[in-house]
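A quick aside before the break. I want you to see a complete sequence-to-structure record at least once, exactly as it would be stored in a machine-readable document. Don't worry about memorizing anything.
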Amino acid sequence: MDDYLASCRARGLSPNTVEQSYAYPLRGILVPWAERTGIDDVSGLDRRALDLLSGELLEQGGARGRGLSRYSIHAYMRAVNQFLGWSQAEGEPVSAKVQLPRLPQKLVDVLSRDEIDHLEDAARTERDKLIIRLLADSGIRVGELIKLRTSDLIERDKKQFILVRGKGSRERLVPVPRLHRRLQRLSRGRPAYASSDRLFLGLKRRAGSDEVEPLTPSGVQQMVRNTTTLAGIEKRVHPHLLRHSFATWQLSRGMNPIQLADILGHSSLVMIHKVYAHLSPGDAYDAMVRTLVSDD
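That is the input. The structure line, written in tokens, reads:
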């Protein structure tokens, strides 16, 4: 298992991804269960044993002896399967993989463009307004947003972009034609005492220092929650919902999924198909009406 996790790190995965998505399901879920059942080698992880593991998690695997959700088990067991696949490729005697539980198909709620406008209007500062609009109009992740630097405002051939550093240290240029000037003004209006080159700064100074506290993901999430309340929006709004909303909006307007995957920082279309290709029932209705009219 240590060799497998070392392989994950060697692939350039971020420490957070390795710890949360790979290490925890193995060390926090698989190893304790294997110790209780007397399994000390991957050869003991046959189909029967793996079915017992999934069943135990469904029935009593959560906190206080409560079963975990199918979504949690699906994520954990997918990580176990990746470990088993790697082990098999390394010549280990692996004979089975976990049967992943079926997940119910859920319609993911998104924000309309009007709701996003209301959210931006309700934000108290230009920094907060720009954070909301940038998340909603570029689809970048909150972790990518807080890492943006003043030098990441790029202009090439009279076209405006931001340079985004995504997962696995992959860089990509994301178009921001309507926001570039506002972002430049925010950059130029930074306090003189700020030594950080981050584009979005915190609103507080460090105790006993002139240095500005760095903006954190939790800080952005709290700001979005507070602004949602001010805007009178009853949906549960969080930064990733703005990413969902951007992707859904672009797909409904006919953006090529390959281009969208590139903007979002996905290395394949798999995530687009699984997560972002959910158009609203109204979009499906309008699309069908247009098709029927064209046939007539």
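Two observations worth writing down. The chain has two domains: 2-89, 113-288. The chain has a mean pLDDT of 84. We'll return to this after the break.
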